[in-house]
From TrEMBL:
This is Adenine deaminase. The record marks 220 as: Important for catalytic activity. Residues 11-326 form the Adenosine deaminase domain. GO terms for cellular component: cytosol. It comes from Iodidimonas gelatinilytica.
Amino acid sequence: DALRDFVKGLPKAELHLHLEGSLEPELMFALAQRNAVAIPYETVDAVRAAYDFSNLQDFLDIYYAGADVLRDERDFYDLTMAYLKRMAQENVQHVEVFFDPQTHTDRGIAFEAVADGILAALDDGERDFGITSGLILCFLRHLSEEAAFDVLAMADPYLDRILGVGLDSSELGHPPSKFARIFKEAGARGLKRVAHAGEEGPAPYIHEALDILHVDRIDHGNRCLDDPELVARLARSGMTLTLCPLSNLKLCVIDDMAHHPLKSMMESGLHVMVNSDDPAYFGGYLTDNYLAVAQALNLSRDDLAVLAKNSFRGSFLDGTAKARHM
Ligand code: HPA
Ligand code: ZN
C-alpha cells in the first residue's frame, strides 16, 4: 500500500539490531542441518509458535538457545548477509549492529570465527548494496565485569574494526554501574559507548548509563518518562534513544501499540528513532516497525520523515556523511 511504499522508500539507518536476533527460523533449520545440531523444534511453524514472550527473560532464553546453530565463520557470514540483503530492499543505507560474542565464546566458538564472518559480510554488504556499517560489541550484563574484560581482550586485534561497545541481556538486577570500569576502558580505547537502559529497568538505570558509563546513545530508554527531569536532560543534550516498537509489544514493555510512548517522546523534544531489535523473533524488520507506530499512533508522513532523519542524526557517521543522507 501507499504508506508502506512511502516508508520503504525513505532513506533510513538502523542503530539497534542484534545480529543474533535476525536469525530467521528457516536459516536456523538450514544451519542446524549443516552443522548437525539438534534443535527442539519439528518445523519452522513450531519455531514461530514458540515466540510468545511475556517478558525480556522469556525471550532471552529462546534467543540464546537459537544461537547454538551458529558454529563457524560461514554461519556468521550468512546470518549477517541475510540481514543486509533484506535491508537493501528497504532502502536502509547505514547500519550499526550489535553482536554478543560471549554467547558464542562461552560455548567454545572462537572469537575470530564470529568476528571474521560478520566483518566479511559487512564489507560485502557495502560493496554489493552500498550499505555502510559499524559493528558494536555487546557485553552480556547478566555475566560479570571480569568476563567483559576477557571478551575485550579477545577483541583487541579487531578494535580498529569495531565501532563501539554496548550492554545488553537481562536488565533488572544488572545496573549499568556494574560495568563502570569496562566502559571506562572502552572509552579510553576510542570506542563509542551505548547501553540498553530503561527497557525493563527503572529511570535511575538511564542516569547511571549517562553519568557512570558516559554513553553516546541510550538503547530503548522508554522508562525515562517516569522522570520528567531526566526527559528534559535527554532532550536538552540531544541524546538519541533507539526505540524498538515491535520488540516492546512482544516483550510486554507496552500492552498495546496504541500506548507506545514514541509520539509523546517526540513531542517532549526527545531525539528518538525506530529500530527492529531482534526482527526474526519480534515479527518485523525496520519498515514494519515504522508502520506499526505510524498506524497505531496516527503519525504523519512528516513525523515519519523526522524519525528517518533522526536515524542518521543519531548514528556515528561523521558530519559529512550524515549531511549526505539527510
Ligand atoms: N534487550 C536486552 N538484551 C537483548 C535484547 C533486548 O531487547 N535483544 C537481544 N539482547
Ligand atoms: Zn536490544
